[in-house]
Amino acid sequence: MWTKLLSILLLMVLFLGSCKKEPNTWDREDNLEVDTASFLLESKYISHIDTQIIFQIGIVTLNGLATEKNYNTAVYYDSVRANLNYTYNLSNTNIQQKLPSAYTSVLLFDQNGTYWHNENYMGVYLRRYFEVVENSTVSQIAIAKFLPQNNESISFYKENENAYFKNSWEYNTNKFYDLSNDNFNSNYISTNILYIIDRLNETIDSLIASPDKNGDLSITFFSQGGFESFQSETTEINSLITKAKTNNIKINLIGFENSTASEFRRIAQETGGFICSKEINYNLYQYINYDEKKITAIGVFLENLDLILQNKLTSHNCTIQVDRTDGGMYQSGERIAFQINYDHKMFTVQLTLP
Amino acid sequence: MFVICNNTYAQDIKFGFFMGTNLYQNTKVDTAIYSPTNSYNTYIENEEGKGIINKNIVFNSINSGLILNFSFKKFTFNIEPQYYYQRTTFYFKNPYPTERVIGKRAFRLPIYSTYKFFKNKNSIYGLAGLVFNIEKNWDFQAPGFGYYIGPDQLYEYEYNFGDDHFKGVLYDDYNYWNYVVGFGKKFNRFNYSIRYLNQIKLTKHNILAKTWQFELSVNILLLSYSDFTKKHFLYVD
User: Fold this and answer.
1) Is residue A7 part of a domain?
2) How much is the ipTM here?
């Protein structure tokens, strides 16, 4: 009887012990799936004459948690979509290591739409980013938001009164989930572009008034995009761009899945900001399917947001000369858009001719 | 104790086996948001005001070991060195659906006294004492039963947030004590008892979670000291 009891006890202990998994040391970076994605860093007007425009474009590709350095396999193609009356000459394709700098950025969240929850693990990337910023001596951010459904003005999340840029990462993470939850519980509404421009103007005013700012100033605007426009907002948009440029504030766009050549994107390009958006297949003219990717392009951008805002980037530049053969002439003040084929991805350059 | 028991009246020392399980366990972590420092994932309570963990579970453990029982009149004093195994799956919905398997295997040492309420040797008794715990924990992300038998696929994306998120919340590296109170009754040769265990702060053990449990324990006393000391007489007609 004793032998049986002891045998059963021993077997039970061995069985239960075998069910466990030993605790492992976990490297936090291991829980970040990484992938590659490209975005439009900048486009610069160089010159134009009657039937010819010359401009420069800079694309950045991110590989994992770093910027691409050599761009060996990436190519600018001298083709254009849907307009055969233009010829493209590419020259001076080069790789440029950008000059890093300290930065102050207001992360402005448009709570309209389901963008937050559809974008997989955005909270994971942003939490990591908030921690990186807290441990950085050159990066500082503030978080502001507005809910178009309530016709809200912008409001800042502040852990300490009147200190926009001093929030802890825990506080920012907490507030990010609050605002994404509010967003999740509200229905999408069509938002007029003028309402959005007013919110950006408010943000610029707050940034100008803040005594804590230093380094490169920017507003990084997170939105689904697709604003309601009557094509009559040029004055307001130009006024916003002028105000931002006068105060050396760049306006960066992240998200914007519904816009490929909207006036709104012009705000980013003409203030010197970047556009991190869903990637578009140039040949198919549709969003790149991410089924085989580990994470989406937006995920890659968010993982590298501190690098991007610090300008710790290497860009792949190209000077592009466009000649039109349709008999038309370029006019001063004219707004133009070109869809560039870079590595079979489409990037839209928008310029206002001086 | 041995000396005391052997020099006093109506005392005995018995030795036996013990088995038990959690009848019911409640674990509560009353915070709306929790950010583990070893992961970029952040946990948010499923329902506002309910805390990130409010788990009620039955039969999530098994424990077995030995029992040393010292009896004196209506009192007994017991020591139960035992192996304790517990495995619980916690479900989190926000911000991303995940399941975590969090378990422990422990050496536990309940030290308690009992008091029989009536003279009958099988009458109901009350018990009270302390339980010393030395445990090893594991904490990893894995599909639990909800994944296999639930109506929806839990993981929309395969994404591993990493191990050991709840150190300092559900467990830590320090040994600790529980207090135990309960009652029991003997049926045939088996002692059945229902015990309530809760935390008591006597060591550096300091976790955020509040955990209490009801345990069912069964022991059988097989060997008595008096078996060796009793004089045996042979009567021959």
Assistant:
1) no
2) 0.81
